[in-house]
Amino acid sequence: MATNAISMQTDAGVTQALAGEEMSGFDELYSKHYRRVYSICLRMTGNVAEAEDLTQEVFIQLHRKLGSFRGESAFTTWLHRLTVNQVLMHFRKRSVRSELTTDDGEMPDSIDPVTINPEAMPIVDRIGLENAIAQLPRGYRTVFVLHDVEGYEHEEIAKILGCSAGTSKSQLHKARMKLRRLLQQRAKAA
After folding, report:
1. How far apart are CA 95 and CA 89, in angstroms?
2. What pLDDT sits at residue 115?
3. 158, CA 20 to 30 Å: which among 44, 105, 148, 174?
4. How confident is the model at residue 55 (pLDDT cuts 50, 70, 90)?
């Protein structure tokens, strides 16, 4: 890191150095972004072990694809997309593995993911969740999506929205409470 000490202070500097085969900055990149990547993986999978495995896979992919980062967007945006794509690929692979053939070679319907992983959320519930999120007031919805879906910290959300971190925390709490009520109402109606 001594050869590029100034440029290593930013993600762009780290990625440039790494693209040039200088690997000393990868630990820095990993340390700086591990929590965000893990958070996204955990929110998407709902499973700690899968999230840990996927986080490692994301950083392996990051190492392989770092040369393709063109700097047209923020590094965190590019890393977020890489992470989401890795998790989605994991889901695709898992759903392909869950298909079975019968003795006569026929392909039955795919196995219900609920029977494979009881922690997985059924599609109907995901639709209900999406509808409930859509019913949230705009401020609640924005903070909820930025924090719980995108993985931003309250300080980052405060900068993005031009409010305080306390306001972000309050909005998130209110959003979660309202979502709970909306989902409970949906469950009672069903």
Report:
1. 10
2. 43
3. 44
4. very high
Closest CA to 75 of 64, 62, 87: 62
Mean pLDDT computed over every residue of the chain = 75
Q: Is the dihedral of CA 141, 91, 15, 31 positive or negative?
A: positive
Dihedral angle computed from the Cα positions of residues 73, 77, 34 and 163, in that order, rounded to the nearest 10 degrees: 110
Name all domains of the chain by residue range, CATH numbers in brackets.
7-99 (1.10.1740.10), 121-190 (1.10.10.10)
Per-residue confidence (pLDDT) for residue 15, from 0 to 100: 56
CA distance 160 to 38: 21
Residue spans of alpha helices (H) in 68-164: 75-97, 113-116, 123-135, 138-144, 154-161
Q: What are the tens digits of pLDDT across the range 121-139?
A: 555 567 777 888 889 998 8
- pLDDT average, residue stretch 70-89: 85
- Please report the sign of the dihedral spanned by the C-alpha atoms of residue 43, residue 44, residue 50, residue 52: negative
Q: What is the pTM of this model?
A: 0.45
Q: What angle do CA 50, 56, 61 make, to 5 degrees?
A: 120
Q: Distances in Å between the alpha carbon of 90 and those of 76, 82, 132?
A: 21, 12, 26
CB-side neighbour CA atoms (13 Å) of 48: 0
